[in-house]
Design goal:
2 domains; 238 residues
Length: 238
């Protein structure tokens, strides 16, 4: 509105000529043009300030959304992916294999042996510390591009990505061997780490639920076999 009033008021800043024509008063004109330009600068400055504020707000909202998404897909105890986050990554892996005809990989399902006894003997705080130490060990034993998750309780999963079946199975056995040689610490005590492992190769034609089911079945078969072996060893030592 100030700019419009200033523009209309320019007409008052003219001088009459002797022949009845009019001429602009250069001093008054310069003054009014300065007001107009000053008003434009003020509007521009305010607009830029609003744009900057909006940009900051959008950036803060994006950071908040990213944080909430991360929380929704991250296991609070270990910092690994949770079940939801793992399935999201697995679906993307399979979609990538379909698009690029990639090699796929191997899913490794892991269930800890003897975890209930640790909770019962040392308490749940010790059990939580044990799970965190195991999570760090698993993550440190695979490549950066592999996907590690805690699915819940004492169950973990690893996607050995972009690898052929033979190599993936070798790496899965190596991971189990690393676990058998590893231990966790709690209250000055050494707590052994033992895995029951199930593996299942996956590729472009597979669905994540079926791959998970097969690996899970194999893992529980391995767990039963380990229990039977442990009972035989106890009987033999008696």
């Amino acid at each position: 509105m100030n700019a419009v009033v200033a523009a209309l008021d320019l007409q008052s800043h003219v001088t009459d000529r002797f022949d009845g024509s009019v001429a602009w008063n250069p001093v008054a004109l310069a003054s009014r043009v300065g007001i107009l330009r000053g008003t434009e600068r003020h509007v521009l400055d305010e607009t830029l300030a609003l744009l900057s504020e909006a940009k900051d707000t959008i950036s803060q909202l994006q950071e908040r959304i990213a944080f909430l998404e991360s929380q929704a897909m991250t296991d609070e105890l270990t910092g690994l992916l949770n079940r939801r986050g793992f399935y999201s990554h697995f679906r993307r892996e399979l979609a990538s294999a379909r698009r690029s005809d990639a090699a796929g990989g191997v899913l490794v399902m892991i269930d800890l042996d003897g975890f209930k006894a640790i909770n019962d003997t040392h308490g749940h705080v010790a059990g939580d510390s044990y799970l965190r130490q195991v999570a760090r060990m698993i993550a440190a034993s695979v490549r950066q591009e592999d996907v590690v998750a805690r699915l819940g309780g004492d169950e973990f999963a690893v996607l050995l990505t972009n690898t052929d079946t033979a190599s993936g199975l070798v790496r899965a056995r190596q991971l189990a061997a690393i676990a058998d040689a590893h231990h966790a610490e709690w209250g000055g005590k050494t707590l052994p780490v033992r895995f029951s492992v199930g593996t299942q190769p996956y590729g472009a034609d597979d669905h994540e639920d079926e791959v998970m089911r097969r690996a899970d079945t194999m893992m529980y078969g391995a767990k039963s076999a380990r229990r039977r072996d442990a009972k035989r060893r106890v009987k033999a030592a008696a």
